[in-house]
Structures are given as C-alpha cells and as structure tokens.
Write a structure and sequence with these properties.
single chain; alpha/beta; 9 helices
Length: 242
C-alpha cells in the first residue's frame, strides 16, 4: 500500500466506518476530507456526499480520482455557506481540530444538518497518549503544537458542541496505531512532509535520531506507532422531522 494519509490512518478509517451507519437516503457532509477517501466511501453508501477541505491541492486530488456520487469543494467549514438543513450526517476523520473558532464552526455545521442530524468525527486524544507525536517531536527536537489535540478533552468538546447546537455527545475510545510505511526510508520520506519537520531535518543528527526511532518500531508489517483517538458522536438538537 503506497504511503499517504489514507494508509497512515487505515485502522481509524475502519472505526469511522463502523460508526457512521449510512443508508441510501442519507446526505453526507465530510469535513476536512483531504483527498476524499472517506467522501467517496460515504457516497457509495448514501444518496450523496460532499467533501470540504481548506487545501486546494487536496481538493484537486480528490476531484482527479472522483468516482460516483461524491462531490468536493474547497473552503473552510467554519464559514462556508452550506445550504441550510441539507445533510443528514456530518463525518470527519481528524478534520475538525484546527478551527480558529470551534463554536462558530460547529454552529455552522449544525445549521447544515437536518433536525436531529448526526455527527460522527475522529479527534486525537491528548498528546501524551499519542506516541507518534511525542517521540517524533523529541527526535526532531521541536516543540509540541496544541492544534492537533485541541479537541482531546471530552468536557471541552461537550461544551463546544452543546453551545453549537448538538446534544447526546458521546465518546468512544479508539486505541488504534498509525502506519508510517513499510520501512525506515519510507517513514523518513513521509515525515519530511510534516510541518514540524521543515528545517529540522537539515540537521543530520535529527535524521539519525529518526532513523533509530523508526528502526525500533519496524515490524514484519511495517512501521507502526501507538495512537489514541476519540470517536465523537452527537445529534443536532432540533426535534426530528415527522
């Protein structure tokens, strides 16, 4: 399997699939869809699926490999003018942790959902439960960044979603590892694309620390790091239409 974001998170994608519970009458909004894997899979099960992402390159890739009923748009889900009450389900695979105003963002998403529409999203648990972040940053000697873990605290998330118009917020532990490639060289190539690695890998000692780290995590099935995520589910708080 070529190394990309879909390969890295393949076990997490399986967890999201188990939770989204899609049917042929659903209309799906995929937040932070990246290259569109989850959008395409949702579209294959539902009546329609729209993927949104702030990165033009990701949307370009998604459209290039689009199949079936999936549609894609480039924009920020915090402010995007979604048609109101258009979707029955909103999903996200680690695409909701970077909003500048999370309450405003989830309020906008709630407005796009039909009454009692469902939300199912994956977010990271705290950094100290995610070996991939802690050990790689230590090897690179770069500071931690809070953004990937901005929704790691359940009480914080309950407050945000409650203020945004969601109810029935629930958390399921997802203790699945992340995949960093078949070998050390593939893992190094993958990490070179990380924002935190820019400049840090100009240091030969940092590269050697990473090589040692990846070698220590090599298995017969490639390089894996422990990770912990929350699968967060909720419903838009308006009474369901009869």
């Amino acid at each position: 399997m070529p190394l990309d974001y879909d390969a890295e998170l393949r076990l997490h994608t399986e967890a999201l699939r188990r939770a989204w519970n899609l049917g042929p009458h659903d209309h799906v909004l995929d937040i932070g869809c990246g290259a569109g894997q989850t959008t395409r899979e949702a579209a294959g099960l539902a009546a329609s699926a729209l993927g949104i992402d702030v990165l033009p390159d990701a949307i370009e890739r998604a459209r290039a490999i689009d199949e079936g009923k999936a549609r894609f748009t480039c924009g920020d889900a915090q402010t995007y003018a979604f048609p109101p009450r258009s979707f029955t389900v909103a999903i996200s695979r680690f695409g909701t942790m970077f909003f500048t105003d999370p309450v405003a963002a989830f309020t906008n998403i709630a407005r796009a959902l039909r009454p009692a529409g469902r939300l199912a999203m994956l977010v990271w648990q705290p950094a100290d439960r995610n070996e991939w972040d802690v050990t790689i940053r230590r090897a690179l000697a770069v500071p931690a960044e809070p953004s990937p873990f901005s929704l790691s605290d359940p009480e914080t998330v309950r407050g945000i979603l409650g203020a945004a118009g969601f109810t029935g917020v629930a958390f399921t532990d997802v203790p699945e590892p992340v995949y960093y490639g078949p070998d050390v060289q593939a893992a190094l190539t993958w990490v070179r694309g990380f924002t935190c690695a820019r400049g840090a890998l100009d240091d030969p000692e940092a590269v050697e620390r990473l090589r040692s780290l990846f070698a220590a995590h090599q298995t017969s099935d490639g390089i894996w790091f422990d990770a912990r995520a929350w699968l967060v589910t909720a419903r838009e708080s308006s009474p369901a239409a009869k």
